[in-house]
Amino acid sequence: MKIRATQLGAMLVALWTALSAVGCTSNLATRDYNLVFTNVDALEYARILCSGIEMQDRHTCLTSVMQHVKEMRDRDVTPSEVLDGPFVVVLRDDLYRGNYVSQPFAAAFTVSNGFNVCRGRYNAFAGDTQAIFKVRCDDGSTGSANIMLDAAGRNGVGIVDMDDGTRGAIVFGHAAVGGAYL
Predict the structure, then answer these.
(1) Does residue 142 fall inside a structural domain?
(2) In whole angstroms, what is the distance from residue 72 CA to residue 45 CA?
(3) Separation in Å, CA 124 to CA 31, 133, 138, 158, 160
(4) pLDDT by residue (tens digit) across 149-173?
(5) For the whole model, what pTM was predicted?
(6) Is the same domain home to 47 and 13?
(7) Does residue 110 contact residue 91 with C-beta atoms inside 8 Å?
(8) What is the largest CA-CA distance in the chain?
(9) Closest among 106, 66, 57, 62 to 83, alpha carbons compared
(10) Distance (Å, rounded) from C-alpha 100 to C-alpha 47?
(11) Residue 178 lies in a domain
């Protein structure tokens, strides 16, 4: 009986390793968004940006976003791209698109889904002790957002937690946000 239990354990470890290798176990909730930066691969950007796309078109969306990231990742950043860029929030299956502006001690973003506009900002000079965005939307909803830079450049991912318990995902930066479906 022990041999079978050992074999089962080995098979489960092998299955877990295989699933991890292909990204099936990736869970954005397990990221530590208190870190300053991490490695973000093109597939993670694509999964977030294409999450609301119909299944029959999702592969095309994923491919388009991943190709954009590949083309943009190693290019030189222009001076204006250092301080601002595209910012996308996926919240309640809605794609909110907009822009961010950033300086070392203050940042802000504005995004819209076409009906609702949400704004987030933090400012160390105004007393904010953490780089956590305070989020306020025109529909009256509020929350907070936390982002993390990709180690490869001025792009990254994040989360937005609304006060009603809704959690959304964030993708930002010129190399991360792009593709035919955006």
Answers:
(1) yes
(2) 13
(3) 24, 11, 24, 19, 20
(4) 998 778 999 999 999 999 999 999 9
(5) 0.80
(6) no
(7) no
(8) 66
(9) 106
(10) 21
(11) no
